[in-house]
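Z., the sequence and structure:
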Amino acid sequence: MSARDKLATPLDVGALRRDFPILSLKIKDKPLIFLDNAASSQMPQAVIDRWVKYRSAQHANIHRAVHYLSETATAEYEKARLKVQAFINAKESRECIFTSGTTDGINLVAQGYGRKFFKAGDEIILTTLEHHSNIVPWQMVADERGAKIRVVPINDRGELLVEDYRKLFNANTKFVAMTHVSNALGTITPVREMIAIAHEHGVPVLVDGAQAAPHLKVDVQDLDCDFYAFSGHKLCGPTGIGVLYGKAALLEKMQPFKGGGDMILSVTFEKTTYAPIPAKFEAGTPPIGEAITLGAAIDYLTAIGIDRVVAHETDLLDYATDQLNRMPGVRLIGTAEKKAAVLSFALDGVHPHDVGSLLNDDGVAIRTGHHCAQPVMQRFKVPATSRASFAFYNTMDEVDALVASIGRVQKLFA
């Protein structure tokens, strides 16, 4: 089937849902309606089976050993790296570093690049939309090196102000770190344009792709980003695994974040020489089974077709947005023109935690709180929001159930 055929053919959501055992669960005798996909998506049976196969028939530590299991595990681990390369269209597989997740990847760059190259007076540009994991690591290295954080503001819709971003650049600007999709608002940021602006000033850019990789087609060569980080557990894969993409020339200049086995060429008490990338940044025994299982998740999503995923999730988001906009006393937080499948809202007179608890009584799983994005909450003058986030296996009927459950909460608090 061609890419065009995939896009023209709508998803058979009913068939896809049967791939996910957990979606048949009942919560308090009601069907599970899982709308917390921005925090972690669910895993299809094919991916679960791949995990079991590795654990039951292929498990061994990788590299160096010459016995069958080790050679098999090594081959499968490196095959998973090739799948990652194809998934994000990296130029070389060695540019794809396995990490424990997006947070680990960002910390790797903050420590490996920032600690080596930042100095007193340098400036790092972040945005108001960032998750804490793309704020705190940069604050840590800035405090250590005497650098300064500067922040791109957003408008009332939750969109980045690109012209204000342009004005932040000066001779001291040394790095930009920004999200591709806001986890709190769903805003899709103009990353390609903002990367191009940074490169006009010779400044490298890291993109937090945790929320984008599951919901958008990611092409790191097209974006021309210098670093891109994402997590497996938001991508129908397991927890404990993620990927940091980095341009080879930059990765080669960076210092390792962690030291230990497998990231070295030679060790004496006088001097250690490091292995080439990617091994240079994969110290110790890596998450082997998790990486192989992430490869299976990538296979699963690729077979569905990311374009069809995007189309279905956009329909869900548009429908849910329209339904909630019709409800008095419901305020949507984040109304950007370009959004991924995240819908944050506040109910008049009801704390988000109460909303989440009462929706759970109806089997509806959403997330409530500040979503590790407190600067966003401060910008909109709310302590927290309720957040429904969609995946390709969600349905319009589930949106209706969400709306009906919110209505019951409002009646209860009336």
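The domain at 3-31+305-413 is CATH 3.90.1150.10 (Aspartate Aminotransferase, domain 1). The chain has two domains: 3-31+305-413, 48-302.

Let me know what you think.
H.
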